[in-house]
Structures are given as C-alpha cells and as structure tokens.
Amino acid sequence: MPPVITNVDDLHAIYRRRVPKMFYDYCQSGSWTEQTYRENESDFDLIRLRQRVAVDMEGRSTATTMIGREVAMPVALAPVGLTGMQHADGEILAAKAAEAAGVPFTLSTMSICSIEDVAEHTTKPFWFQLYVMRDEDFVDRLIERARAAGCDALVLTLDLQILGQRHKDLKNGLSAPPKLTPASVANMMTKIGWGLNMLQTKRRFFGNIVGHAKGVENAASLASWTNEQFDPRLDWEKVRRIKEKWGGKLILKGILDAEDARMALQVGADAIIVSNHGGRQLDGALSSIRMLPEIVDAVGDKIEVHMDGGVRSGQDVLKAVALGARGTYIGRAFIYGLGAMGQKGVAQTLEVIRKELDTTMALCGEKDVHDLGPHNLLVPKGFRGEWEPHGRNG
Ligand code: GLV
C-alpha cells in the first residue's frame, strides 16, 4: 500500500531514504554553524495564530497574484541548484507539478535540466533565476535564452557572489554528476530507484552551462564553478545593466536589509524576495520571517515583497502573508517531495501546503487570502526589534 502522506515531514522521511547522501546533505545544509538555517524554521514557531469563531467560512479562496501573474496560492517553487540530481529530470518534473497546481516554477542557473529542456516539457511560462558571472557574454546569452524560452520573470540573485561554506558539501566532494569514490559508490548502491531513474536520463550535468559557457565541457563542482566564474563585483550598477538587458519583470532575490530594499526600489525592480538563501550564505544573519516586517514597512507600499526561508507548511505561508509578503517560495519542501516520488511528490507537497493554508485561514476566520494581516497573528514582543544595528554606523 502506498504511504499515506499527510504533511511535508512524511515526504522528507521518504526522500532521506531514497536519495544519495551527497545530495540529501546538499539540500539539508546551511553554512557554517547553520544558525540562520535553523532559525529560518524555528522563528516561524514563535508566531502564533489568533483563533476566531462563528465566522461564515464557505467559499474560501487562496488565489492571488504574484507580479501580476495569477497563482492558486501565494507560493512559488524556489530556484534550487542541482534539482536534477535529487531525481532524474527533476527540474522538468517539478515544473510540470507547479504548472498543474497553478503556481510558478523558478529554474536555477545551476540546474541540471536546461532552460530549453524545461520549456519543451511545459506549456506555461516559468521564471528564470540568474547568477551573474564574470563572463558578460555568457550572462547575456542566458538572458536571451530565458527570453526565447518564454520566461515571464527574471529572478536575479544578489546574495551569492561567492559561495558560503557548507561543511558537508566539502566533505562529500559534492559534484554533478557525482564523483565515484568508494564512499559515494557504496552509498549510491543502496539507492536503487534513484540510480535506475538516473541511468535513463542524459541530463546529469549543469545543463545551462556545459556546452554553453566558453571552455566548459564538464562543470562538475558547484564550488569550483562559483569560485572561478561568479562575478564578485556584482553591484547596483550591474543590476541596472541586467534590468535593461532583460527588459521584462525583474525580481531581486536575497534582500535582507531595509536599505537594500530601498535600493531595489530605486533600480525599478518589480518585486524583492526577502531571503538569506535558506541560511546557506551569511550564517548569523537574522531569519527571513524576522526581517520581513521591517522591509515591508520600508517599501511594501511601493513594491511587491516576497519571502523565502523556512517555509515548510501552509501555516508558515499564512504567517508570512499576514506579515505583508505577497508571495512565498518553497525550496527544500518541494525537494523532499521530488526526491521521495518525483512529480507526484512535488504535487503532494503543494497539495499539503494548499490544504494547510486553506484550513488555517478558515480557523483564523478568514475567507480570502487578501484579507490576512497582522490581526491574525500573535507575535512576541520584540520580534522585530530585539536586534538593533550596533554602533555609530547603525
Ligand atoms: C546555490 O544556489 C546553493 O545555495 O547551493
């Protein structure tokens, strides 16, 4: 009998058993001590919900828009590097599940399936996440490829000019395809379903890069690729250049400070994603949900504010929306579903989250996702202001 999936943790447990340790660890890591990674999740638990009763709950709707696009709920799939290593053809499968559920899919630059692969297997536009490389021609070609594939938003990541250190990836020798060492082979031999699927696909390299970037025949290691190719000089001037080059909807990802949110507004972005890269970059930064209200206060009336980091349930989505996020992104939560059971698993993740959001709305006395607000929450005193800028430059 197939397992009964009632929450995202159920998918996580199956995912853990099915996927090689190297890729499981990649997903489950934050940088250095992982404080920010842990707090992204645990800070959601500090926020409680206000139960309201005797409210007509019939005819509820979680539907809204993100940058003008209709979405079935305020949730998009976040860009996740190496998704096609978690399950063969992972990006295609996740994009199909997102399309069926009526939410946007965002393809990472560091994906295994290419922009063209995903476009060929989907019917609705997806979003493309861009990393800025030193090679400007290559960046321009990526932008052109995204445009040609019909992508309707560019998600430009600003918090990864250099890669944060994740201890396990270094110890495991993370690469795509995986390097064959005695330890990795021994582990992969226990992951039969994963391996059989992987043998049936040709997509085992960084599909947007290999064969497209000059001189790159086999970009095996994420760490070496980022160290050599990512542009550490990325600044607001370059953001402006990319905005001009793209000319379409632009979402800036990795904003965690009100000052930077104001800069994003000045360059004319359509939305920002309050994010610390899932706790994978600057360990010691505050969680996304804790920074969200301050950033909403600073720019929320002029630009759409989205958030990611720690979203594992519909209750988390509700809390973020009530604090002013127009949309949220799930990364790890959809990878659990994908690794557990492919497209069906991503569909299950989205369905679990949609139901949780819908039921929580009802029990909070709300029928329309647009009516959610701070009045639905009980937030500890000091949730926003406990940490202050320190010193004379603060
Ligand atoms: C890349 O986006 C990563 O966080 O590994």
The SS-based structural class is alpha/beta
CATH architecture: Alpha-Beta Barrel
Number of domains: 1
Q: How much of the sequence is in beta strands?
A: 5-15%
What does this structure look like?
Its cofactor is FMN. One of its GO terms (molecular function) is oxidoreductase activity. InterPro entries: Aldolase_TIM, Alpha-hydoxy_acid_DH_FMN, FMN-dep_DH, FMN_HAD, FMN_hydac_DH_AS. There is one protein chain. With about 400 residues, the chain is α/β, with parallel strands linked by helices. It has one domain (about 10-370): Alpha-Beta Barrel (TIM Barrel), CATH 3.20.20.70. It contains 16 helices and twelve strands. It has helices spanning about 10-20, 20-25, 35-45, 85, 90-100, 115-120, 135-150, 165-170, 180-190, 190-200, 220-230, 235-245, 260-265, 290-300, 315-320, 330-365; strands at about 50, 65, 70, 75, 105, 125-130, 155, 250-255, 270-275, 305-310, 325-330, 375-380. Strands 4-11-10-9-8-7-6-5 form an eight-stranded parallel beta sheet. Helix 15 (about 315-320) packs across helix 16 (about 330-365). The structure holds glyoxylic acid (GLV). Glyoxylic acid binds near residues 110, 160 and 280. Glyoxylic acid (GLV) binds near residues 81, 110 and 160.
Keywords:
394 residues, alpha/beta, TIM Barrel, eight-stranded parallel beta sheet, two-stranded antiparallel ribbon, 16 helices, 43% helix, globular, binds glyoxylic acid
